Amino acid sequence: MAALFLGSNLYLTFSKKPDIKWAERLNLLLGTLLCWNQIYTASFLNPVGLEGFFVLFAMTSLSVVAFSYRRALQVIAVQAGVGIVLPWVADLFFNVLTGREWLYMFSMETIVLACVVLQTAVAWFKAQFDQEEARRLMLQEQASTDPLTGLRNRRAMLEQLQEAQFEESCLILLDIDHFKKINDQHGHNTGDDVLCEVARVLQDHVSDPHQVSRWGGEEFLVLLPQTTAPEGLRLAEKIRLQLAEHDFPQVHQVTASFGVSDSQPAEPLRAWIQRADQALYQAKRTGRNQVRLAGEDADFAVSTHKMPLKRSEGH
Question: Could you tell me which residue ranges the GGDEF domain spans (predicted)?
């Protein structure tokens, strides 16, 4: 039983993604078995059997730290009952205590009470820490998330770009074509819906949603780690076609212009982003709804296919 307890606690300590519910059930089962063993010891042997309580205390201490506050209090309550109440109940029925043993019992129960208080304090402080950590993570998530689209915001993406610029990576900068006209003709609520829909389309084309960010206004930036320029171009073209074919509510069709740039050795982050921005500017200047690679000939666009624009209802 001790080996199972030790294995369970080692699992909680070293596993990257432990199954907390499974570990809770196992520890409660083992704790119950230990309690029954303690009942037998305290009832039919002698008060010295109370020392077995400290085995129970040691084995469940990590469980108190690992589990929820509510479950920790349940474990502590069981231990308090076993360590404090049970010996007196056993003496009431079996009269196993002598005068000297009564003094020993009081001294042992003082230690037991101290153990229970210690575990309760540890569980409480752990619960407070968990609440503060959850609050910190929530604030951190809010500070790095665009409130409208739910994507990473510019600040969070800049941190990711700083890590990715020293390895082979590619970024795609895109801007929704004629977005001001969408707001003017259909209202800002429709414009917000378009931004959210574009965000969903972009996230569908990447493995990690955190690779997509709202860069500002109607601009989006997609970071592609361990991606070459040709691979980035292919993905940008795929996204361009998907957006052009997507049926947006009220607006029906939305297109975007794309600038693609790959990271260069020893290139500052600002220069990497600027090259993508210049490529995007070229795509806008030469007709929109196309993909440009940073540094390519201004007279050549990677994709120049134009889809016929669908007319909105009533326009």
Answer: 167-296
